[in-house]
Structures are given as C-alpha cells and as structure tokens.
Design a protein that fits this description.
CATH topology: Ferric Hydroxamate Uptake Protein, Chain A, domain 1
Oligomer: single chain
Keywords: Signal
CATH architecture: Beta Complex
Helix content: 10-25%
Number of helices: 2
CATH class: Mainly Beta
Structural class: alpha+beta
GO molecular function: cobalamin binding
GO cellular component, one term: extracellular space
Number of strands: 8
Organism: Channa argus (Northern snakehead)
Shape: globular
Radius of gyration: 16 Å
Protein name: Gastric intrinsic factor Intrinsic factor
Length: 131
C-alpha cells in the first residue's frame, strides 16, 4: 500500500483514527504452581490494538510487572517469562494465555500475544502451568 493510500485510509470517516476511545482491560498473572499471589494490572488499549502493546504499556508504567518474549519467525512473539518466572521445557512449564470475557466465559485464544486483540473489560490471564 502506498503512503498516500495509507493516509487516505486514516482520514476516511469511520476509520480507526476517529472510531473509538481507549479500551480498558486487566491483565491477571496467575501462578498456582509456585503458590504465588494472584496479581492484577489494569491498563487500556487503543481500539483494535494488540495484547503485546498492552503488556509493554503495563511494563513501562509499573516496575512490579516484567515480561520477556522471543520472536518466532513463523509464529510471532512467544511469551517466555512473567515477573521473573520463565517457562522450562525440562519441567514442562509455560505461560498459557487465557481470556475471561466480559460475560465471564474463559477461553483460550487461537493466537498469541502479538495477534490477540482484546475487547473492552476483558481479563487477560497469563497462567503459569504445566503441559
């Protein structure tokens, strides 16, 4: 897409530039395997923003939240650690991405942190678990 086409798309009525305000979400860090206290972080996203952006926003504004990820050439960002706790293939542990929707249902998205687009008032659950 040319720069002019992109500019025109942003200026058209009803596009992302004028659509919606901030989308509030919560990120819940759950680590029952190690008996850690449930932690909840609140943030917002721009309309149609990806989860990775929200995680970075929390990290940049809250010293008590850290995470690392790696880029997989074929599948995108892969969450490695949260708050200093990393998954371990020898111990069969990893960070599972779950979503509690505004109607209370818990689902496992079919995409990761680089593609998931949260909806307003969702609880994004980063769950340390075993496979």
């Amino acid at each position: 897409m040319s720069a002019l086409s992109t500019l025109m798309l942003l200026l058209l009525p009803g596009t992302l530039s004028e659509c919606c305000g901030p989308v509030p979400i919560a990120v819940v860090v759950e680590n029952r395997l190690q008996g850690k206290t449930l932690l909840t972080y609140h943030t917002y996203m721009p309309y149609r923003g990806i989860l990775l952006g929200a995680l970075k926003r929390i990290r940049d504004s809250n010293a008590n939240f850290t995470f690392t990820y790696t880029e997989n050439l074929n599948y995108g960002p892969y969450l490695e650690s949260v708050n200093g706790v990393a998954g371990n293939t020898a111990k069969h542990t990893y960070w599972e991405l779950l979503v509690k929707t505004s109607d209370g249902k818990i689902m496992r998205p079919d995409v990761g942190i680089g593609c998931y687009i949260p909806s307003a008032n969702e609880n994004i659950i980063l769950n340390f678990t075993m496979y």
